[in-house]
Amino acid sequence: MTKFKTTKAAALLFICALFTAAIVSCNKDFARVLPDKEYTDSVDVFYGKRKVLYIITDGARGASVNAANVPNIKSLLPKSIYSWVALNDPNSKNDARNWADMLTGVKSDDHGVTSNTFEGNNLERYKVLFERIKEVNPTIKIASFSASNLFKEKLTAGTDISEAYATDADVKTAVVNNLQSDTATFVVAHFNDIDDAGAQYGYDNSFPQYKAAIETFDGYVGEIVNAVKARQNYANEDWMIVIASSGGGEFAIPQNQNDNTVFSNTTANTFTIYSALKYSQRVISKPFTGNRYLGRTVRMQNEAVRAEIDTADIFNLGGDTSKFTIELKVKKNGERFTWPSILGKRREWSSGHPSVGWVIYLEEKYWYFELRGAKEVNGNYRQCRGRDLEPNQWKTLSVKSEIRGGRRYIRTYTNGQFDNEIDITDAGDLDNNDKLKLGYLNGTGHGSPDVYLSDIRFFKTTLPDATIQNYACQTTIDEGHPYYSFLVGYWPGTDGQGDLIRDFGPQARDFKLIGNYKWEDFNDLICPPSAETLAQFVPQTTDIPSQIFNWFRIASQQSWDLSGRVWLDQ
C-alpha cells in the first residue's frame, strides 16, 4: 500500500469537498489508501486487535463443497467474500506446488516449487508469508498445525509454533486447544483427508466417501470457529477467517457442464472464503466465458470420413497478384497430430510436398497453411504457421494473401489474432484441376485427422486485419459483412442430415460426404477467453497472502513481487 504525503491527502480531501455528488465514494477510496498502521492504537481500541485463522484443505473441489451438507462453512457466508469457482494454478499436479502458491503469494515460475521434493525451489527469494510478517512485525505470534510433515518441514519458516499430526482429527484438536489457551495472532490449520478420499474413491459427491470427508471437515470448521468465538478476550479481537482449498481433483464432469474453459478443469476448481464481522456478503461467481455455438455437424475422422467438391476451379489461389481469404472453424479431438490435412486443393498430400496447390493441416499442437507453386524456386513449397489449438475448443483459422509493395504475402490468424507471415512472391501459380477436399487428403507420410469443421468461408479478396478480428467469433455470415459480395463459397457445415455439406455462397458448390459419416450434435463455447484472462475475475490461491497482509495492515513491498490481489466486499 503506497503511503500518501500530507499535501496529497489534503488535496484529495479538497477535491472531495468540491464535488459533493461524489463525497461518499471519494471518502471511501481515501480511507482505503491511507496507511492503517499509522493509526494502529486507535483502530485496535475501536475494532479490536486483528487476528487471522487460515484453514487450508487439500483436494476439495469448490463445486463439491458447495453442494455438500456444510452448515458450519455456510454459516460464515453472510459476513464473507467468497467463491465456489476459485482457482489454483491449472498446471499444478502436486500438493507442494499448491501450498507454495498459497503461502508465498507467487506462482511456481517464481517460487520454484514444482514437485513434492522441493528441488530447485526459490523460497529464499520468494519467502513464505510467515517470514514476511515477522520481518515487518516480529511481535505477531504465528502457530501452524498440519496433517503433513512435508508442509511443516518445508513451508512454515517464521512460525513460532509448527506441529504436524497423523490425522485431521488430531489437527483439529490441536487448533482448538491452541485457540483456547494461546495468544497467537495468526493460526494456520492444514487438513488433507478430503484429498485422501478423492484419490481413493473419486473427487465428486457422487462418491459417498468423498462427500463424507467434506462434511467431516465442515464439522472440524464448526468446532474451530466456535473455539474462536469462545475465547475469553474475543470481544476485543477482530478476526478474519480464511478457508480455502489448495486444489480440486480429476473428475469427468457431465458434458453438458463442460464449457472447455479453466472452470471445467476439476483439478483447478477450489473455493475461497474470507470471513470477517466487518465484511458484507459478496459472492464471486463464474464470469462470462463466451458465446454458445451449437448445431449438428460431421466428425472428420481418419481416412474413412471426408468430403469433396469435384468442380472446384473457383477455389484456385492464382498467381502472383491474386487475392484470397480462407476462414474456417476447427475443433480437434486430440492434442497432437502428425500432419493431417483438414482442408486443401491438391492432387495429393505426401512427403516431399509434391503437386501444385495448397493445404491447411495440423502439426503437433499447432496448424499450418502450406502451398506449392508452379515455379521451381528454393524447394518451391512454403509454410506459414498458426498457433497452438487447444483440444475440444472451436477455433477460427484464417489465411489470406496480401499484396504490399509489389510482393505477395501469406498471413495466418487464430481467432482473429495475427500469427505469422511469409513472402510467396516467387512461388508461382497455385492453380490446379484437383478437387477441393475437406478432412483427409490422400497421400503418404502423414497421419489422419480427427476434427469437427464448420463455418467455412472463401473470399476472393484480401480481408483487412480488423475485419478478420471483428468477425472471428461470429458463427454465421450475412449481407451485413463488409466483404460479403466477395464471398465465393460459404459452408456452415451444420446441415444436420443428408450426404451434402451445402454451399450457401453464389456458386452453390456443395461438398459431397464420403464414407461412414454421422451427423453429431454440438453445443460449445466459441472464442472463450484464456485461462489467464478468466482467472483474473475470481479468487486464486496466490491471492491469499495479499489478503492476509492487508488484514494485518502490512504494506506489500515491491521487492516481494506478489502475484495476488486483495478482494473487497463491494
Description:
This is DUF4983 domain-containing protein. InterPro entries: Alkaline_phosphatase_core_sf, ConA-like_dom_sf, DUF4983, Phosphodiest/P_Trfase. Keywords: Signal. The chain is an alpha+beta fold and about 575 residues long. Helix content is about 25%, strand content about 30%. The protein has helices at about 5-20, 25-35, 40-45, 60-65, 70-75, 95-105, 110, 130-135, 150-155, 170-180, 195-200, 210-230, 465-470, 530-535, 545-550, and strands at about 50-55, 80-85, 140-145, 160-165, 185-190, 235-245, 270-275, 280-285, 290-300, 305-310, 325-330, 335-345, 355-365, 365-370, 380-385, 395-405, 405-415, 415-425, 435-440, 450-460, 485-490, 500, 510-515, 520-525. It has an eight-stranded mixed beta sheet with strand order 4-3-5-1-6-7-2-8, with helices on both faces. Strands 9, 11, 16, 17, 18, 20, 21 and 24 form an eight-stranded antiparallel beta sheet that branches. It has an eight-stranded antiparallel beta sheet with strand order 15-14-13-12-19-10-23-22, with no helix packed on it. A hairpin with a 2-residue loop joins β17 (about 405-415) and β18 (about 415-425). The chain is elongated and about 90 Å long. The two termini are about 20 Å apart.
Assembly type of the chains comes to single chain
Distance between the termini: 19 Å
What is the number of beta strands? 24
**SS class:** alpha+beta
**Mean pLDDT metric:** 90
Uncertain runs with pLDDT below 50, 5 residues or more? 1-46
Q: Roughly what percent helix? A: 10-25%
If strands are numbered along the chain, what order do they take across the biggest sheet? 4-3-5-1-6-7-2-8
Radius of gyration using CA atoms only = 30 Å
Report on the biggest sheet. Answer: 8 strands, mixed
